[in-house]
Write a structure and sequence with these properties.
The chain has 226 residues and is mainly alpha-helical. It is 81% helix and 0% strand.
Length: 226
């Protein structure tokens, strides 16, 4: 599933909005009722997990609004306000993700993925915000597109994990000696890495391809002026 979030003109934003709405409707209720299946690994694990989930939910909704082409073009002031809300939600969500991600109860592969993802999310968000404040439009678009991709990558993560569990199930006996826990750690970790690295790679590649024609046009204009 190629979720090219940054390409508002090619990806039908309304469809993405529906997908995000369905995902949140299915994912959030356990955190309101305290029935989450994620076991706590330290005293503040559950409160930080809930904080991360709630802030991330707001960030996901704002990310969809931010990549909506009509909002950017026709309502730039609203685009900036929603962007401010996105940054205000993404930063604490990323910080919480780093803390609880490092203490993941589902193995070291997933823990490393969580920390790397959260660190990149924080990096792209901060740099995107600063670039926007300084009117560096191209850098702002680059960083915030990748930030939004990471914010929404949890959706593809949820797709990869069950697929991997089914297709790689023979490895539970062949590679892990029947150890179900270690097999689940492997599947969860691999699904997590694929869930965000593939969308980021796809979006980054498309962003670079968009920059090439613009650079060519600018060079041609400069030559003509000379």
């Amino acid at each position: 599933m190629r979720m090219t979030y940054a390409q508002g003109r090619k990806w039908p934003a309304p469809t993405l909005a529906v997908i995000v709405a369905i995902f949140l409707a299915l994912s959030l209720p356990p955190y309101f009722s305290g029935r989450t299946r994620v076991p706590a690994t330290f005293a503040w694990h559950y409160p930080l997990l809930v904080a991360h989930v709630m802030f991330a939910a707001v960030a996901m909704v704002c990310a969809v609004a931010q990549i909506w082409p009509r909002l950017r073009v026709h309502r730039p002031a609203l685009h900036r306000r929603v962007g401010t809300v996105y940054v205000g939600a993404a930063l604490p969500a990323a910080v919480c993700a780093m803390v609880i991600g490092a203490a993941s109860p589902f193995g070291p592969i997933l823990a490393v993925s969580n920390v790397v993802l959260a660190s990149l999310w924080l990096w792209f968000t901060v740099n995107g915000y600063l670039a926007g404040r300084q009117r560096r439009v191209a850098e702002h678009r680059w960083h915030m597109s990748l930030s939004a991709t990471l914010a929404l990558s949890i959706i593809t993560n949820r797709i990869w994990t069950p697929i991997l569990f089914i297709t790689l199930h023979p490895l539970q006996h062949n590679l892990f000696g029947g150890n179900k826990e270690h097999f689940l750690w492997f599947v969860a970790g691999l699904g997590a890495w694929l869930g965000w690295t593939i969308p980021v790679a796809v979006v980054a590649r498309r962003l670079r391809r968009r920059e090439v024609p613009r650079s060519s046009i600018q060079q041609s204009t400069a030559v003509e002026q000379v």
